[in-house]
Structures are given as structure tokens and as C-alpha cells.
Amino acid sequence: MLSPRKDLLRVVRHELRVLAADRSLWVVSALLVLLCAYALANGLDHSRARDRARADALLEQAAASDALRASWRRVMTRQEPPDPWANPTDPSLVGSGLATRYATLPTAPLAPLALGQSDMLPDSYAVTTASRVEFMYDSEIENPWNLLTGRFDLAFVITYLLPLFVLGWSYNLLASEREQGTLRLLLSQPVRLGAVVAAKVAVRAAVLGVGCAALPLAALLALGAPLRGPAGLGLLAGAGALIAAYALFWFALAVLVDALARSSALGALVLVSSWVLLVLVVPVALSLGAALASPAPSRAELATETRTITAQSLARFADEFGSDYRHVHDPELLLPKNGRFEVPARLRAFFRASHELDSRLELALAAFDTQLAGQQAIVDRLGVLSPAIVVHEALAALAGNGTSRYQQFQFQVAAFHAEWRRFFQPRISEGLAITEADLDVLPRFVWVEQAPASLAKETLSSLLALLAAAALVAFAARRALARYPVA
Amino acid sequence: MNAPLLIARRDLTELARGGRLYWMGGLLLVLLVTSLAVGWQRQRESQGERARAQALDYADWLAQPERHPHDAAHQGMHVFKPEAALSIVDPGIAPYVGSTLWLRAHRQTEVKFRPAQDATGLMRFGSLSAAWVLQLLGPLLVIVLGFAALSGEREQGTLRQTLSLGVSMREVLWGKALALAAMLALLLVPAGLAAAPAVLLSAEPGARADAALRLAGLAAAYALYLTAFVFLVLAVSAWATSSRLSLVCLLGLWVALVLVLPRLLADASRAWVPSESRREFDRHLGADLGAATQQAWTDRFGAGKPFGSGVPLSQWGAGLRVHDQAGYGVMDRHFDALWDSYARQQELQGWAGVLSPTIAVRALSMGLAGTDFDEHRAFSTAAEAQRRLMQDLISDDLVEHADGHGEQHFTYRAARELWARVPPFEYRPASAEVALGRNLQSVALLLGAAVFWVVIAHAAVARRSHG
Fold it and tell me: Which of B124, B356, B419 to mutate to test the interface with A (most CBs of A within 10 A)?
């Protein structure tokens, strides 16, 4: 008998010849490459639009900043009288919108891979001294019908379609040979059954791997500059390994079912049912289970609470809310004197009311974050029930479009909002005019990216989960093959 | 007994002996019952919560002390979208649109708080609902039960025997269709009967007849949908040379029609009818609002910036009215353009119902359930009308009473009777007939799909030799 390695190579060569002669190799590869290319183009298009929108927001911020400074100079040198609604020396107006401040989330290098939550959750917030409630619950505006449908990105092709390619191509690896009677012939040669199966799987895995991992990732590398460098290559390797491990799981399942099923039609049915269960049913069931186990607090109650607190502030500051129109007779009131500025009572009251609203809602708002984190913890723990969940979530995280990165972004925006408020609080309450130096030191939002090590750890644990599932099924398949009736 | 009935009875007995019906059917039934139970609980909870919140809100509005009316407009009122009774069956776009609007001074806002924002990324796999089960898994069940209906008999040679008894191929086809339909009915009718009391109990007492009508419409829509798939499956089973080929082709078709096509169409419609992003929308709306209010201000008061020093306080109320009303047309134009772009996108995708009954039934199902975009838009429009009513009442009152105070405008306090002049917000969803009228495209396509596949199935059995 030949050595197992030569054994394997021989069957691989044979299998390649058979497949190449069969049209299915070409059809499958072409279809897969086409789907992946389309998905990738879609992802690139979407993330480029996000990049443009972010650049646009930053440009707008810079232009507004210049305009504010120019207006400040004109007012201070008395070239023009201050506009009571856009007075650049009034700290309450500068804080509540004159100094446009965007908190933006940059796209990650692998963003085109999986669009994740990026079509629903906003990448930028215009931060002002107004309450968080005013701007933090906005979402990206997108046709809800399309949100419901989902996007055609690479993560979709891999999570949903790749298993079907694997199954469609290997559900009858042995059954067909047995049904045609060629298996006996094949095994009359000096090869072992295990080697035959391994070789068949290897050939198919290579074609699928090139089609939906190597080619798209290489294309991303060619198109996306930020991926060049060790960190970028690490991300690509992570994505490639996840996809490969996921495919491996499905190959192992196909072999297991093939080895156990009495006929290829029965095998096909069992495999399709497993796919339906793992890719369609378990994710929606788990999503529902997580929502039931860690339910989001009531938004209707939050709305009521928000309004109640607002009404109380309005009542308390009632006297101050009457617009201050003294400037009509005394325009000098709109100009600082010795660095001091009399902030109109109405605007001061708005600032205090919105601050009060936020501090009184803090616990209620935190409850939403806690419950969502609770859901995420359940998904992280029980996600291993379905490799589809593991790969989908892991790819979204690698692409920087997962739930946790967006939640992190919202935390950082909330912190920036507090910082912005702290900057203006003394100026508004003590009536300090905005100086030119203030304009230089207005807080800026700086996004702090998740540490690469923690992303690597997450990816690794997802990878291990996939590999463990694949190994488990492969082990069972090996045992089943040992008892496989060749005749 | 005639031949189709006999064939159907034999098929039913045979399938009852096999495992497929129990496994696949059982799974479907468990999912269906779970989703109905969860849907019922969610519907009851959120409907009660919203009704309570809105009543509380209006009570607070009425209980306002004497105050400057513009302060009242800053307090504003919340309105909540009522949760449709049929959302138990099909929540539609509900996870992706909000349900809460804060009607306040100055500007139309969006409906906030999308449930999907309070959920993990798994929500994007879909949300479990009876509609999801029927739309996605229903056809799969038909495929699993029926892929070998004709091809299997041909392989075993039993088809030739049946034909030798003088039964026509058409009778065989209808017998097979009947058997499949009976099996589906066996599973779905009990689920439908379980859903009926839940739906009727959830509906407002005055709207029960409407809910019953909608439920009947949904039942008919899904019956048509599954009929189309029954004949599609039989057509492929008649055409395929082997059961294996039949299964592979059907599964491929299912993936293409149910999973891939809707996403492709969403992309295509987005490319064809671009809709604005939040930034674009806000920027354009802001710019146009600024220009329109400036223009209206100039027309009414001569030059000067809105609320600038050019207009005395004795005209503050008049200024507010000019300012607010100048914005109405602009807001209508921008929101209509945005919503029209969504409607156009959906309409374009709807035409693909010609290819995929799933797309047609999805739109029809949401429409009948009252959880589609049309209903959401109608709610948003009604809420904005309420906001304008509140705003106009307030500025009229200011013109009438406060502007006379001259420089002391802001010392004016409106009496409590003013608050009661804003009526409570009551939104009545469209009736079942209106909902059906909005979805005639889908009805026609679904009917067309069913007829189309019946014809194709007949052609397939007629063309094929059955030896």
C-alpha cells in the first residue's frame, strides 16, 4: 500500500480531473465569484458613501468653525452688530449650535466586508448643549422596507449562501458513487475510504475557499490602502480563517450525513433541514429569546418621563422663559463688557433645564444600555448554538460594524456631550463671553478605537468556537465512515 | 370517488407514514405557534403601554397651569402609534420604524425609537413572526413534501401504472396538488384558528369586524401564495428527470426567490430611486426652511431677520405665526419627497412579484396587517396635523391676547381653557378596504403567480413522457 500522503494526492488528482470534466465546477465557481464580487462591490459602495459623508461632516465643521471666528472678529471690532440669535460672543448660543460639532465614527478598514448595523445606526451626531434625548435617539434614515430585507454583502453570501454551495456540492460525495456503483471500483484501488473523502473535500474546499475568501480579501487588499501593514493583514487573516472554519463545519456536516443517510435524497433533505435550522431558525429564535430574557425597558415610559421632567423644568423656570427682548432697545447688551456677557435668562434656563433632564434621565437611559448589553451577553454565550451566528457576528465585528462598536461609539458620544457641556457650563452660568482663545480650545470628539488585542481575542474565540464545532462533527463523521457500507 | 380525490387520499396516507411531514411540519407548527404567542404578548403589552402613556400625556397637557402659550408648545405632547391588532401575525416594518412622536413647537420631527435599536445584531437575521414563518418556511415545506410527487412516481414506475388505469395526467396533477394542499391545511388551519381569537381580542371593540376582515384577507393571501408554490413544485417535479434533480432545482429556486432576489431588488431600487441620507435630508430641509421663513418674514414685516430687532414685541405672536406657517409647505415638500422615494422603491420592488410570489405576499401581508409603510406614513401625517393644530391655536391666541400687551408680551398667561381647545389625538388606522386598495398591485401579482404556475404545471405534465 502507498503512503497516506501519496494516497491522498492521487485521489485529489483523480477528483480534479473528474470535476474539471464536469461542468459543475465551472458553474459553481463562476456563480460564487459573481455573487462575491457583487456583494463586495455593494459593501465598497456603501462604505465609500459613509467615508464621503464623514469627510463632508468634518468639512462642514471646519467651515462653520472659520465662519464663527470671522463673525466673532467682526462683532468684536464693531464691523457688524451681533445677531441676537447667532451672537458669537454668547456662550449659550455657541454651545447650542453655532459651533457645529460632529462626533463621527470612522469606517474600519474591513468595513465593506459586512455592513452590519451601519445602515441603521448613525455614524455621526451633531453634539450641542441640548439634552442627549434630543439627538442620541436619531437613527440613519433609510427605507424601513430595505432595512427589513437586509443587505447583500459578503457576510450575507458567506453566512447564508456558502453553506448551500458546500452542501450542494458535497451532499452525495459517497452516496452518488455508491448509487452508481463506482465506489466499489474506486476502493478496489489501493486507497482508503477516509482518504477518498478527504481528497474530495479538499478539492471542493479549495475552490470555494478561493472563490469566497481568497479572491474577495485580495480584492479588498488591492483596493483598501489601510489594510496594508501588519494590522491590516491580521484582520484579513482573521476574516479568512473565520470563513474557512465556517465552511469546514458544513463540509464536516455533509460528510457525516452522507455517511449515515441511506440515500442521497434523504441526505439532501437532512442537510437542508439542518441549514434551515442553523441559519434561519436558531438566529431568530435566539434573538427573540435574548429579547425576552433581557427585555429593553419601555420606550413609551421613557417618553413619558422625558416629558414630565421637561414640564417640571418649564414650570420651575417659567419666569425666565419669557424671551428677553431688552436688546431691542439696548443693542449694547449683546456685546461683552470686560470679558463678561449677560446670557439672556431664557437661554440660561434652557441650558439648565436640558442639563437637569439628562441628569434625571441618566438612570433610565443607562437601563437601556444595560439591557442591550444583557442581550448581547446572551447572544455571545448561546451564539455557539449556530455557527451562522458566530460567523455573522464575528465578521460584523471585524468589519467594525457590529453592535458593540456602535454601542461604544454612543458611549463615547455621550461622554463627549458631557465634556462639551462642562466647557460651557461655567461660561453660561457665570456670564463669561466667548473669547477668541476659547474658539481654539473648544472640545473636539476623538474616537478611541477598540484595542486591536481585544478584537483579536474576540475573533480568536469565535474562530475556536467554529473549529470546535467542525472538529466535533468531523469526529462523528470519521466514526460513521469507519462503519460505512461500501456495497 | 373521482381520480384526483383518490390520488390525494393515497398520497396523504403515504406521507403520513413517512417522517417528512412530521419533522418539517412539526417544526413549522412549533414556530408558528411560538411566534403567535410571542406576537400576542408583545402586541398586548405595547398597545396597553402606549394607550396609557398617551392618556397620561393628554391629562398633563390639560392640567397645565396658566402660562405663556409658547411654553406650552415647548412642553408639547407625545403621541404614540397604535399597535395594529394584526401585528400579532405580521409586525411588518415595525422593528425598523419608531412609534413615538413628541409634538412640539417649531419643527416636524421623526417618529422615534425603533425597536431594532434596542436589539442585538441578530435582529438582522429577521424577527420571528407568523408571517416570517409562512413566507420563508412555508414554500420550503411545500418543496420538501412535494419535490418527488411526480418524479418519484416516475422513477418507481407507479406513474405508468396509474396512467394505464385510464387516469389522465391532469387528474394526477390535481390529485397531487390536492394532497399537498390538504397537508398544508392540516398544519395551517389550526394555527389560523388559534390566531383568530387572539387577533379579535386584541382589536379595539369597534374594530373587530375590520380585524376579522383583515385576517380573512391574510388567510386568502397566504393560501394563494402557497398555491403558487404547490404548482411550482409540481411543475418542477414533472419536468425533472430525477427526484434528486427536482430537489436541487427547487431548493435553488427557493434560495433565489426567497433569499437572494429581495436583497438584489432592494439594491436595484435604491440605485434607481435614490433616497436621501439623514445628513442630506437635514441639510436640505434646514436650508429651505431658513430661506422660506426669511422670505415670509420679509413679505410680512419688510426687511430684517426673523425675530430680529426690526419687529416690536407687540407683533411677536404675529411673527411666530408667520414663522411657523412659512415652514409647513417646506416640510411637506421634503417629507413627501423622502416618503415618495420610499414608496417608489417599494413599488419598483413590488413589480418583481411577477418573478417571486414571496415579494408580492410580503407587501400584501404587511398592508393587510396594517404594519406597512403606508400606514406609518398616514400616522406621521396625522400626528403632524395635530402638531400644526396645536401650534396654530397657540399663535392665534398670542396674536389675539398677548400682542396687545405690547412690550409686556411675555407677561401674558393663557387661561387653562386654551389647553382644552387642542383635542386629544386620536388616530384611526385605515380600514381593511383602504388597505386592500393600496395593495392591488400585490393582489394582482399574487393571483397572477398562482395562475401562472397552474398553467406551467399543466404544460409540464403535458410535455413530458411518463414512461
Answer: B124
Write out chain B's pLDDT in tens, 467 residues.
588 888 888 888 887 777 777 878 888 888 998 999 989 988 888 888 888 888 988 998 998 888 888 888 888 888 899 989 999 999 999 888 888 888 888 777 777 777 888 888 888 888 889 999 999 999 999 998 899 889 888 888 888 888 888 888 899 999 999 999 999 998 889 888 888 998 898 888 888 999 999 999 999 999 999 999 999 999 999 999 888 888 888 988 999 999 999 999 999 999 999 988 888 898 899 999 999 999 998 888 887 777 777 777 788 888 889 988 999 999 999 999 999 999 999 999 988 888 889 999 999 999 999 999 999 999 999 999 999 999 999 999 998 888 888 778 888 888 888 999 999 998 989 999 999 999 999 999 999 999 999 999 999 988 765 54
Note whether B27 contacts A281, CB cutoff 8 Å: yes
Cβ of B99 within 8 Å of Cβ of A299? The answer is yes
Question: Which 337-376 residues of chain B touch chain A by CB within 8 A?
Answer: 338, 341-342, 345-346, 349, 373, 376
Residue ranges per domain, chain B? 3-463
Q: What is the mean pLDDT of residues A252-277?
A: 87
Contacts of B115 in chain A (CB under 8 A): 296
Q: Is B47 helix (H, G, I), strand (E, B) or coil?
A: helix
State the Cα–Cα distance between residues A242 and B151, nearest whole angstrom: 39
Backbone torsions φ then ψ of A125, nearest 5 degrees: -125, 140
Closest alpha carbon to A103 in A126, A122, A134? A126
Chain B residues lying within 8 Å of A53, measured CB to CB? 277, 279
CA quadruple B398, B402, B406, B407: dihedral positive or negative? negative
Greatest extent of chain A over all pairs of C-alpha atoms, in Å:
107
Task: For helices B316-351 and B261-272, give the axis angle rounded to 10 degrees.
Answer: 130
| Neighbour-count burial of A307, counting CB atoms closer than 10 A to its CB (0-12 exposed, 13-18 middle, 19+ buried) | buried
Residues 112-151 of A with CB under 8 A from B: 116-117, 120-122, 124, 137-151
Alpha-carbon distance A73 to A334, whole Å? 14
Question: Any idea what DSSP says for residue B309?
Answer: T
Characterize B84-102 residue by residue with b for buried, 16 or more Cβ atoms within 10 angstroms of its Cβ, and e for exposed: bbbbbbbbbbbbbbbbbbb
Distance CA B215, CA B38 (A): 18
Give the integer Cα–Cα distance in Å for A394 and A246: 11
User: Please, are residues B110 and A138 in contact by the beta-carbon 8 Å criterion?
Assistant: yes
Q: Does position A190 have pLDDT exceeding 80, yes or no?
A: no
Mutate to test the interface with B, among A56, A180, A258, A299 (most CBs of B within 10 A): A299
- Please calculate the CA angle A297-A416-B71 and round it to the nearest 5 degrees: 65
Q: Which residue has the cell 412642553?
A: B75
Going by C-beta distance under 8 Å and a sequence separation of 6 or more, which residues neighbour residue A419?
Answer: A443
From A432's Cα to the closest Cα of chain B, the distance in A is 23
Alpha helices (runs of H) in B147-277, residue ranges in sequence order: 151-156, 158-164, 169-202, 208-239, 243-254, 261-272
Q: Which three cell numbers stand for residue A327?
A: 436688546
Residue A103 phi, psi dihedral angles, 5° rounding: -100, 115
Spatial contact of B86 and B42, defined as CB atoms under 8 Å apart: no
| A300, B82 Cβ separation under 8 angstroms | no
CB A46 within 8 A of CB A151: yes
Q: Provide the pLDDT for residue B205.
A: 85
State how far the Cα of A109 lies from the Cα of A221, in Å rounded to an integer: 10
* CA B361 to mean position of chain CA atoms: 11
Q: Write out the three cell numbers for A116.
A: 452590519
- Is there a contact between A151 and B132 if contact means CB atoms under 8 Å apart? no
